[in-house]
Amino acid sequence: MKTVLSSEWLKLRSVRATHHAIGIAALMVVLGVIWTFYVSSLADERGTLRAAAPEEGFLPLVQISLAVLGVLAITSEYATGMIRTSLVAVPKRSTLLLAKAGIVGLATFVAANSTLLLTYATSRLIANDRHLGFNETSFADDLPMLFASGLSVTALALVGLGLGAAIRSTAGAIVSVVAMLFVLPGVVNYLPPPWNMRIATLLLPNLVPQIADQRLSSRLGNGFLPPWAALAVLLAYPIVALTIGYYEFKRKDA
Fold first, then answer.
1. Could you give the residue ranges of the DSSP H alpha helices within the chain?
2. Residue from 66, 97, 33 nearest 241 by CA
3. 147: Cβ–Cβ under 8 A, 6 or more apart, which residues?
4. Fewer CB atoms < 10 Å away: N or C end of the chain?
5. How many whole angstroms separate alpha carbon 120 and alpha carbon 139?
6. In sequence order, what DSSP letters do the residues of 99-135 get, joined into one string?
7. Domains of the chain: which residue ranges?
8. What is the DSSP letter of 254?
């Protein structure tokens, strides 16, 4: 297993798309700096200002870019035919997919949390003592939200890996991830109450604040899952996606 993990790590870090995906995710830091300077100037004029924290507002950028990394970790091998070589080296498909999941999970977790923490630190440093809405809590208060955000990125990357293994199409898997992240939350708004809020609380974008023990507030009303339940639902996403991916990966020829 150690050899398989080393091989998967080598493949992931040697592909140019990996550096592009992490680079796009790292743009969050730059955008966070620009956003903080902008809202800080408004706060200086008005005396006080409530604004979305950059590590929350730009979280979808990190989620989608690293989800694409998860997709490409397997679909790129199908596109180039390298999957046959991988299966010759590791005939047991469960071991191969598990190794890919471990490497993708670790890489995205480290990249996501590094980006989030750097964005958080730079924005608070720039904001200093200005009266901004995202500067009113301590790091200890914000840590659950940062942890949940980083975990959501890792979960979505593993979902991308599972969908990539099942669909075997880069475009199809990416479209599925985008629909899950951006389309479904909008569609749920049009469901009749109380089903709109019941389903909304289970959607991946809405799990982050609930893991951090915050209620959902929207025109749908107030929804809430206990942190442990929200965390369990979040972990269920990659487990289900990888299970489906493994079933299709094992059932079909390379």
1. 2-14, 16-46, 54-57, 59-80, 82-89, 93-127, 139-167, 170-178, 184-188, 195-200, 204-211, 227-251
2. 97
3. 113, 211, 212
4. N
5. 9
6. HHHHHHHHHHHHHHHHHHHHHHHHHHHHHTTS-BGGG
7. 2-251
8. -
CA distance 161 to 68: 9
**Cα distance between residue 124 and residue 53, in whole Å:** 9
Dihedral sign of CA atoms 99, 102, 104, 110 in order? negative
Tens digit of each residue's pLDDT, the chain (254 residues): 778 888 888 888 888 889 999 999 999 999 999 988 888 877 666 666 677 788 888 999 999 999 999 999 999 988 888 888 888 888 888 889 999 999 999 999 999 999 999 999 998 888 776 656 665 677 788 888 999 999 999 999 999 999 999 999 999 999 999 999 999 988 988 888 888 888 888 999 889 989 988 766 554 445 678 889 999 999 999 999 999 999 988 887 65
Q: Is 12 helix (H, G, I), strand (E, B) or coil?
A: helix
At 212 the three-state DSSP class reads coil
Question: Residue 17 gets which letter from DSSP?
Answer: H
Residue 192 is given by DSSP the state P
